[in-house]
Amino acid sequence: MPGAAEKGPIVVAIDGPAGSGKSTLASRLAAELGLPYVNTGLMYRALAHRALAQGVDHDDGPALERLLRKMTFEIDRSGRPPALLLDGTRPPDGYAASEVENSVSAVARHPEVRRAMVELQRGLGREGAVMEGRDIGTVVFPEAPVKIYLDAAPHERAERRARERKGSARVAEGMAERDSRDERVNPFVPAPNAVRIDTTTLGADAVLNEAVRIVRERLGGGT
Ligand code: C5P
User: Is 2 a member of any domain?
Assistant: First the structure.
């Protein structure tokens, strides 16, 4: 959809739980719209990873905030779509490791960490972005003109995650545990004006087509 990026800074918020298809949709939609792709889950994972590496206690909110403030996040404009760089390099695959997934909800629950993240994320989206997360349409960019909430049946989310990680039943268990930790400490509330897409029975192309239709509708056509 050429032209979307020329309409001024547009933020498209894509929120939803793990395994709902957020990353696949958000990166493809960003490429389609010519906007940067900002994966905010990756930012929380990067902080959890750094805390593990440096022995920072995931119960110590102020220490985690200090650690976060030493990290730099920027957009690599040479990428397709332009996407996040952490401390000047592309984030490694290690952020999907189970140790990171086991501690990320605890790291993300601290108000000081969330405040600092929101500040960073607003800076990254200032010139427009497709931003993926859980609180984009409610907290980070409540004024975003396009908000999409993705969801899928729990069995389908678990199966997708297992396929992605070439894993077993442990993957499904790990995801269910993280879901319930997030529910307790980072309760997830979809924005009231978000458009919901249930991706349980939809392929990635169908989800992308639906999202492009929603973007066109919300931006008043002509894009
Ligand atoms: O989206 P993803 O599964 O990569 O997110 C990893 C974790 O980061 C989530 O389980 C959640 O604890 C946290 N998160 C968050 N707010 C966001 C994005 C992610 O609290 N906007």
Answer: no
- Distance CA(171)–CA(169), nearest Å, equals 5
Provide the residue range defining the domain that includes 73.
11-216
pLDDT for position 7: 61
pTM comes to: 0.93
The counts of H helices and E strands in the chain are: 8, 7
Residue 177 is predicted with a pLDDT of 84
Angle between helices 40-54 and 61-69 in degrees, nearest 10: 110
Q: Look at residue 118 and tell me if it is in a domain.
A: yes
Distance 190 CA to ligand 1 centre (A): 14
Pair 58, 48: CB distance under 8 Å: yes
Among 58, 86, 104, name the best residue to mutate to test ligand 1's pocket (greatest count of ligand atoms within 8 A of Cβ): 104
Structural domain includes residue 1: no
Instruction: Find out whether the beta carbon of 138 lies less than 6 Å from any atom of ligand 1.
Output: no
* Domain presence at residue 3: no
For ligand 1, whether the C-beta of 174 sits within 6 Å is: no
Containing 204, the helix (H) or strand (E) segment is helix 204-218
Coil, strand or helix: which one is 22? Answer: helix
